[in-house]
């Protein structure tokens, strides 16, 4: 059985490297053991800047960085800070305001003062962008039980705290189109002291429970690969049976299995096990699927409304998709009787696996009867597709699956055809409002690179694990079905996001898991960044952590006229989605930011949120990586960084030693340094599937998690301190008597220094009088459990020693300040720090070149 307690995961995955070395001098014994205190985990990167001399007011490593593991989501974007106060306001006070706004609205902006002219905006280098988490969990978000008050066509903005209201005339003025609108009759009793919730200044984010019910309950269609080993299949069956108890009772559920053939199980037939078989080598059209399954007369046509409490009309699809409470016995029986695909496989060949046909049949089944109803197609793949449409590798083992090198040389036999097949399938699925999740349980690649569009276009989950027997898969799968306090699933279906702006701003695009709805409005900009030329996107699947990068341009050609009160640019985000309770909801977030004054207004520079900017720029870089060559993307990242530093740093021309950055710019170069070295842009030593998975997760997470992916956090544990202390992500942080805890988001790694490893192998932690050493070994494990508790997908947990094979996961992330070229490796002058054998430049060298180029005036 699967443990539902993620804290227990650590114990399942501990694996220590066995190193044969004589123990060095043992630790000093003490009876008193250290107690673990709560630790604020920081990036501790600013100390590097202090050494390199590019900070204006360098601080201690612990205090200058702005993101913590426990409170990293507290560094956010401010709303409506006046230019006069911003000029005087301390940076820490600004961060506190930004923190409050992200907690309230789920929004972080790269610039919190908007340039008043297009010319001024072009000089910012980093685009104006918002990182928005629509369903960010906030217990006190008001839920209104009535329809929203909207502006007249074509604006359709929603009543919000920034509207001007004439309580006597019962009229409100829309701040987006300046139209006058009559308040509805039930607002007749409002006064200046008694206003409705949506006009309250604190309710810039508000949610409505709409009267429109969902056309059908949530649908979950399992698509299971039978071409896998018995232990993997058995473990997967246990997880699937367990998941039935986590679904809402009225949820519809179905089963498709595939190997050489694809089988649609008719769980509504009680006489015996009955299924419809599709040949794995044939490409079936949607019409053929519907005819073969007998779905030509649909029971749930698009647009049919289901009244709350009424029985759903039973159509032909009810033979394959039934409510859980009705089908649980039949489905459990069908799952438990599943056997490995019986088709014989020679020792020199791969199993024939028709993944493409199975997915095509699943999409056809859902779209025929439940179009525009919330539903998930959950694919469990144990290997790559080797048969039929969508195959990614041939069945012969002597033929290797494609690598990044093969793709770069265009030496790919199946790649383009498979990519086109799955992209077309993704477009159909997104149009129907359904979600596709991919759970991969295989040591080899399964074809995520070709299938990535299925998840990226529909807002589905992508989980990459070594086996379905691993705790990493089991715990991640359980967390898909997490529920809120009212026992509703923490997931939204059939979601649509629309963005409205005032005349000063235009939307240029969105980067995230969505598809364009091609809706044009006066809010759509001339340029395009990401998925552009629209102000509305369809996400299909959305959850409380799903975040989207939305980019803007300044529309006005000249500066605004001087006024007593600063003018504001405004954005309104409208998120319609099907709540798992069965009703449609609308969440509205409205934010306003001041426009800058005359050219050169210092308030613009002071409003820069370097963390939000780093995440928004990394999304653009990853988006470019999908279509451009890797070196071109790296050059673009370098150009943007040099231009930004040249624009906002303080320096004397051609004098790098005079280079200084203000405090809210100091971490940005480090983020870009680590982004350049990250697996998001450097594909060397990564498979195409791993690259697709990593980029998928980056485009889903919020600012704090994305920053951990870009620049991992590192904590050090030793005897002379209480708990973990944040240290530099640098090779100098590796010391023989220290334990390090690395969090890359995808991996949680505990690294024992050489001396600590020798003490542990000698068994001192088990001896009386060495309780302090036993406590030291436990502290990083306890902190690792805390990190794993709410992480999705579950990270890989690694415990290693200095010199061990898995130490490479740590060494690859560290800034190589001590390499074989920087000191007398192994000689009398060698330091105690770890020497890294690499040709990569260090952060110090990177900053030296950056300062030289930024001050040259020729960048």
Automatic annotation (TrEMBL):
Region (Disordered) residue spans: 58-79
Pfam family, one: Gelsolin
Gene3D superfamilies assigned to the protein according to its UniProt record, in alphabetical order: beta-sandwich domain of Sec23/24 (2.60.40.1670), Sec23/Sec24 helical domain (1.20.120.730), Severin (3.40.20.10), von Willebrand factor, type A domain (3.40.50.410), Zn-finger domain of Sec23/24 (2.30.30.380)
Highest taxon of the lineage: Eukaryota
Domain Sec23/Sec24 helical: 609-707
Domain Gelsolin-like: 726-810
Membrane-topology annotation of the record: Peripheral membrane protein
UniProt xrefs under SUPFAM superfamilies: beta-sandwich domain of Sec23/24, C-terminal, gelsolin-like domain of Sec23/24, Helical domain of Sec23/24, vWA-like, Zn-finger domain of Sec23/24
Residue ranges of every copy of the Zinc finger Sec23/Sec24-type domain listed in the record: 148-187
Record localization: Cytoplasm; Cytoplasmic vesicle, COPII-coated vesicle membrane; Endoplasmic reticulum membrane; Golgi apparatus membrane
Stated role: Component of the coat protein complex II (COPII) which promotes the formation of transport vesicles from the endoplasmic reticulum (ER). The coat has two main functions, the physical deformation of the endoplasmic reticulum membrane into vesicles and the selection of cargo molecules.
Protein name: Protein transport protein SEC23
Native source organism of the sequence: Tolypocladium capitatum
């Amino acid at each position: 059985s699967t443990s539902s307690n993620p804290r227990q995961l650590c114990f399942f995955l501990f694996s220590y490297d066995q190193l044969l070395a004589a123990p060095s001098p043992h630790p000093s014994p003490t009876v008193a053991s250290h107690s673990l205190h709560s630790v604020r985990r920081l990036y501790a990167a600013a100390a590097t800047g202090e050494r390199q001399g590019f900070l204006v007011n360098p601080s201690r490593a612990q205090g200058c960085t702005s993101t913590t593991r426990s409170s990293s989501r507290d560094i956010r974007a401010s709303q409506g800070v006046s230019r006069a106060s911003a000029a005087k306001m301390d940076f820490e006070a600004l961060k506190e305001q930004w923190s409050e706004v992200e907690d309230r609205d789920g929004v972080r902006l790269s610039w919190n003062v908007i340039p008043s002219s297009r010319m001024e905006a072009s000089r910012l280098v980093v685009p104006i962008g918002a990182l928005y988490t629509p369903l960010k969990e906030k217990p006190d978000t008001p839920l209104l039980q009535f329809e929203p008050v909207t502006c007249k066509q074509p604006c359709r903005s929603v009543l919000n705290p920034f509207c001007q209201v004439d309580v006597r005339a019962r009229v409100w003025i829309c701040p987006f189109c300046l139209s006058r609108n009559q308040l509805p009759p039930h607002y007749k009793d409002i006064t200046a002291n008694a206003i409705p919730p949506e006009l309250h200044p604190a309710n810039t984010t508000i949610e409505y429970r709409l009267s429109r019910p969902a056309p059908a309950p949530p649908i979950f269609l399992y698509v299971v690969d039978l071409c896998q080993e018995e232990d993997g299949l058995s473990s997967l069956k246990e997880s699937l049976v367990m998941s039935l108890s986590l679904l809402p009772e009225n949820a519809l559920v179905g089963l498709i299995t595939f190997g050489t053939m694809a089988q649609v199980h008719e769980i509504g037939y009680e006489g015996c096990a009955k299924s419809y078989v599709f040949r794995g080598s044939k490409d079936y059209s949607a019409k053929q699927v519907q005819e073969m399954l007998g779905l030509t007369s649909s029971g749930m046509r698009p647009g049919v409304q289901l009244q709350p409490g009424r029985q759903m009309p039973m159509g032909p699809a009810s033979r394959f998709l039934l409510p859980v409470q009705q089908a649980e016995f039949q489905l459990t029986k069908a799952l438990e009787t599943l056997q490995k695909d019986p088709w014989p496989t020679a020792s020199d060949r791969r199993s024939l696996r028709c993944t493409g046909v199975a997915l095509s049949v699943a999409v056809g089944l859902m779209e025929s009867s439940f179009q525009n109803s919330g539903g998930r197609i959950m694919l469990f793949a144990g290997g790559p597709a080797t048969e039929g449409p969508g195959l990614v590798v041939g069945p012969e083992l002597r033929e290797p699956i494609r690598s990044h090198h093969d793709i770069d040389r265009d030496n790919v036999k199946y790649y383009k055809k498979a990519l086109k097949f799955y992209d077309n399938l993704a477009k159909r699925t997104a149009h129907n409002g359904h979600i596709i999740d991919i759970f991969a349980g295989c040591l080899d690649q399964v074809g995520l690179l070709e299938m990535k569009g299925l998840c990226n276009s529909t807002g589905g989950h992508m989980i990459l694990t070594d086996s379905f027997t691993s705790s990493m898969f089991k715990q991640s799968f359980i967390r898909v079905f997490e529920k809120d306090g009212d026992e509703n699933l923490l997931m939204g279906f059939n979601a649509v996001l629309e963005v409205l702006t005032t005349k000063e701003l235009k939307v240029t695009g969105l980067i995230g898991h969505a598809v364009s709805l091609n809706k044009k409005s006066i809010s759509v900009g001339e340029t395009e960044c990401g998925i552009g030329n629209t102000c509305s996107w369809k996400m299909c699947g959305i959850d409380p952590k799903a975040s989207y990068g939305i980019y803007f341009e300044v529309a006005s050609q000249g500066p605004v006229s001087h006024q007593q009160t600063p003018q504001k640019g405004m954005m309104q985000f409208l998120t319609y989605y099907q709540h798992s309770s069965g009703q449609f909801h609308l969440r509205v977030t409205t934010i306003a930011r001041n426009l800058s004054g005359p050219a050169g207004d210092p308030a613009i520079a002071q409003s820069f949120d370097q963390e939000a900017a780093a995440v928004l720029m990394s999304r653009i870089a990853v988006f470019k990586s999908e279509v451009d060559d890797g070196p071109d993307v790296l050059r673009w990242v370098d150009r943007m960084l040099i231009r930004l530093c040249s624009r906002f740093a303080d320096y004397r021309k051609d004098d790098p030693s005079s280079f200084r950055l203000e405090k809210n710019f100091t971490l940005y170069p480090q983020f870009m340094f680590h982004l350049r070295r990250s697996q998001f842009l450097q594909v060397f030593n990564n498979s195409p599937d791993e690259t697709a998975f990593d980029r998928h997760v980056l485009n889903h997470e919020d600012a704090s998690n994305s920053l951990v992916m870009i620049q991992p956090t590192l904590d050090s544990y030793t005897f002379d301190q209480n708990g973990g202390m944040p240290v530099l992500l640098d090779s100098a942080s590796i010391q023989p008597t220290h334990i390090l805890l690395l969090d890359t988001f995808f991996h949680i790694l505990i690294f024992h220094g050489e001396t600590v490893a020798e003490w542990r192998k000698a068994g001192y932690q088990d001896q009386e009088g060495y309780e302090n050493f036993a406590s030291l070994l436990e502290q990083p494990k306890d902190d690792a459990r805390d990190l794993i508790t709410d992480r999705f997908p579950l990270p890989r947990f690694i415990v290693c020693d200095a010199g061990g094979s898995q130490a490479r996961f740590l060494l690859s992330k560290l800034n190589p300040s001590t390499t074989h070229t920087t000191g007398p490796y192994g000689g009398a002058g060698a330091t105690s720090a770890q020497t890294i054998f690499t040709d990569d430049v260090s952060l110090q060298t990177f900053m030296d070149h950056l300062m030289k180029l930024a001050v040259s005036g020729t960048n």
